[in-house]
Amino acid sequence: MKSAIGAKPEIKATVQSLGFRKMNQTRELPDNPAVRGMLRRVDFLVAVEGEPFVRPKRSRYKIWRARSTKKHQRGN
User: Fold this and answer.
1) Burial of 32 by CB count in 10 Å (0-12 exposed, 13-18 middle, 19+ buried)?
2) Integer CA distances (angstroms), 74 to 24, 66, 67, 70, in order
3) Do the Cβ atoms of 44 and 56 come closer than 8 Å?
4) Domain ranges across the chain
5) Other CB atoms within 10 Å distance of the CB of residue 64
6) Is residue 63 predicted with pLDDT exceeding 70?
7) Region label for 24, one of left (φ > 0), alpha (ψ between -120 and 50) or beta (otherwise)
8) d(CA 7, CA 68)
9) Which tens digits make up the pLDDT trace of 38-61?
10) CATH number 3.40.50 is the correct assignment for the domain at 9-74
11) Which residues contact 3 (CB under 8 A, 6 or more apart)?
């Protein structure tokens, strides 16, 4: 459902090991504890059939910072 472009290398490796290569791709995987653990690890990127996809809150993947004032102080 979401791209893994800006994710950590561990998350990218998990998505790749699940067999996902493109956005909105579907995979049929066995129902075992290993696959369930990998899906739980990347639940903010993928959706499981039968379970609703809940978009993560913004604070989970983006850190808001105050704007720098250095740029505006240089001119004077």
Assistant:
1) exposed
2) 46, 18, 15, 6
3) yes
4) 9-74
5) 6
6) no
7) left
8) 25
9) 999 998 888 888 877 777 666 555
10) no
11) 23, 45
Residue the block writes with tokens 């102080």: 73
Structure tokens at 35: 């696959």
| Neighbouring C-alpha atoms within 13 Å toward the C-beta of 20 | 23
> C-alpha distances in angstroms, 57 versus 31, 43, 61, 62?
28, 13, 8, 9
Q: What is the pLDDT of residues 26-40, one digit of tens each?
A: 999 999 999 999 999
Q: Which residue has the tokens 């129902």?
A: 31
Residue written as tokens 């240089």?
Answer: 74
* pTM > 0.70: yes or no: no
Contacts of 48 (CB under 8 A, 6+ apart): 39
